[in-house]
Amino acid sequence: MAQAVSTIAPEDKQLIWHSLDISQAIARLQSDAETGLSSATAKQLLTDLGANELTAKKGKPWWWKFLLQFNQPLLIILLCAGFVKAITGSLVNAGVIWGVTTTNAIIGFIQESKAESAIAALAKAITTEATVIRNGQKLRIPSRELVPGDIVLLTSGDKVPADLRLIQVRNLQIDESALTGESVAVEKDTRVLNLHAALAERKNMAYAGGFVTFGQGTGIVVATGNATETGRISQLMQQHIDISTPLTRKFDKFSQNWLYMVLGLASLCFVVGLSFRGFQEALEAAIALTVSAIPEGLPAVVTVTLAIGVSRMARRHAIIRKLPAVETLGSATVICSDKTGTLTENQMTVQAIYAGGHQYTVSGLGYAPTGEILIDDKPVNLNGEKGLQECLLAGLLCNDSHIEKKDDKWIVMGDPTEGALIASANKAGFSQSTLAKQMPKLDGIPFESEFQYMATLHTTPKGKTIYVKGSVEAILQRCNLMLNNDGQPRPLDCVETLKQTTIEREVNIMARQGLRVLALAKKPVSEQQNTVDHPDIATGLIFLGLQGMIDPPRESAIRAVQACQSAGIQVKMITGDHAVTAQAIARRLGINKNGSVLAFTGAELTQMDKTELAQVAEEGVVFARVAPEQKLRLVEALQSKGEVVAMTGDGVNDAPALKQADIGIAMGGAGTEVAKEASDMLLTDDNFASIEAAVEEGRAVYKNLLKAICFILPVNGGESMTILISTLLARDLPILSLQILWLNMLNSITMTVPLAFEPKAQNVMQQQPRRPNEPLLSGSRIKRILAISLFNWIVIFGVFEYIRQITGNVDLARTMAINSLIAGRIFYLLSISQLIPNLIAKMDGTIKENVNIPAIGFGIIGAIILQIIFAHVPLINEVFSTAPLSLQQWLFCLAVGSPMIIWATVVNRFDPPN
């Protein structure tokens, strides 16, 4: 038996079953449709092939993953800084820096572990029980015990336990939206299909993780565990190598360059120092230069800035799972969005009706009974619209589903299409429960794909009547009358061609809008008839009208798409639904590129090589009937063109692409656990509009990060220049290594963290996305850092030399030099903050929201208090070699720092901070 299964070539295992007829499939698996497998055969197969559950490949041990977190340039710099402080005798400071390094590693390790738990979520997705036939008996067994060849029975409400080739169906419909992206349940049959049929079109297959929404069926297991389509997605996720985000890539490059620069300058300082001084003094100068050049406070500030961004996004319904994702979304150039449930309501809704020769529109969304039926944009008077009444009644009565309110949300129990018909009738004031009593159902013909219609027989006040709904083609060929607006039947015989043309024109109008069109009809029968069968409705039907429905776009999504495109972000729809429907939805949403809505299907993408796919990925707007692997390829193709890709999704089929994207965005409510675990960010309200808010916050966070970097690095630059030039000139060091630690670890963080609370600039969403390859330090930012560093060096070096000459007190000179530097930094902080511009805008009424003064204010006050402690606490004087200052000396420091106002104003002209 196991040999029979293994004879199928590996490349055929996912394709072959839907292209085989039933007898061939059963023969290949050496099973029997009536008796199933024997218990002994099933047990042997379970031993040979393994359990029906997903298994992950054995990964690296946890301790190795933890050690790998330290393999980052920025952390290496911190480790070096800690080592330097340790050898200078400052063990406490060394411990603090090593503690920061270890904390960063722990956070990274935890985030990586969470991402890997996506495989466990996939395993949970197919854990269930199954009804099987073994030894000719019906049994209920755990789904993990299923093996290829088992005969499985499906009924409404079941979860499909493995991949099945269907061998018998009775009105079977399966919701496979989480796997294929189809917005409605798929009606299944057993007919043989083309070998290359797309996943969403394999109607003779049932896939693991799907839900049976209607009918019954029997299938033979063809794949279990990792061999299922869901299992293949699991493998895609395992095989894929994680990629870094734009922020981490830029920090890595920046850190490497900074590391090389620090080592080079420290070596130069040591070599030059040996020429003028002894070994100990040269080593002290090199160590001081190293300590001054390493921005110890930067990682902490970056982490705080990102964490504040996380908090702000959470208030706007976006939960961040990985800190760098805050910035990444702000730099996104493309958002690839799933259609069903993300851009749309995931609730079928009737939006157009044609009845009695009139066209009607229907307002309202989803299954809620709120909304109106309109004609010429005005509410209809149902008493004068008899044709419309009959059309709505037919949709309500010829129906096996019902809708109910659960947790303040209206849901359909049964088929979504039938739910839409119920909702449209409810909006006209009809009640399904009331009509069921007044016009009870006597018999019915369930919907079957062979006939393309459904019929029910009812007792009505006007006599017994058969109501029919189905495809336009199936209904019209059975009609010889149509109902006019007065509710009177009119013959079709003398004007048949005209009427057919009119109806077909209405069908085409609805189809172009992406609507799914159903035709409705009725037939009065004799009072003696109590059953209904196909011959009863072969002819003589009265055409009642058309109802066109769609899974409508979210109103908020329309606004969000417009905002994203205004911000220079491309929006692309990737879906498993039909191309015509997807294009219609895209037009409604306003998704386009240069005014056109170019669509490609999964079948077309399959034929393309990487170069063609990359071009199509850029030009296309809608990608329909797309398989999971193709979603992944599309994301990779866009990334190959230099795009920063955000991918939204909620289904199992979105997981690999979510993980590959620069940032994966999952739906927190309707999303599957698999999608959530694979994502970087969750939308708690499942609202595409929240993405716009997240983009806005992400951009603001990046701006604040740049401000923090441009605030911290000039201090390191000024300190380094001071040490290096003093060494080259053989002068006493104006600032010592311990004093540098005070500045870099305490004062810098105190004054920089408030920048993380900066509000977003008013024009942040009018700016184009940053270039993906834009370096962290652009040319203008490097000029800014050098200019401010030069000012800081002049202050430190100039004040130190001046005070030392007039007082002869080296400790006093160093203390005043440092405090003058802090005074200049306070003015510089105000120059790059939005505090003053926002206060001015608040006063002239340009902005109305409150200006966040406390953050910057507390930072400045905190810096002043620290410097008072630095200068006037005896213990600090002794440890850091400082001296108390008089009031006049404090004012002198303030005066020396004040030219920064003019200096920073000039710098802001060539490098605007906001």
What can you tell me about this protein's structure?
The protein is α+β, with helices and mostly antiparallel strands and 914 residues long. It is built from 35 helices and 28 strands. Helix 25 links the parallel strand 26 (645-649) and strand 27 (663-667). The longest helix has 40 residues, at 689-728. The protein is elongated and about 120 Å long. Mean pLDDT is 82; it is low at 1-15, 118-127, 239-243 and 493-499.
| Overall radius of gyration | 36 Å
Could you give the distance between the termini? 70 Å
Query: What percent of residues are in strands?
Result: 15-25%
Major β-sheet annotation: 11 strands, mixed
Which runs of at least 5 residues are low in confidence (pLDDT < 50)? 1-15, 118-127, 239-243, 493-499
Mean pLDDT: 82
Number of helices: 35
Quaternary organisation of the protein chains: single chain
What helical percentage do the residues reach? 40-55%
Q: Note the overall shape.
A: elongated
Q: Which structural class fits the helix and strand makeup?
A: alpha+beta
The number of distinct β-strands equals 28
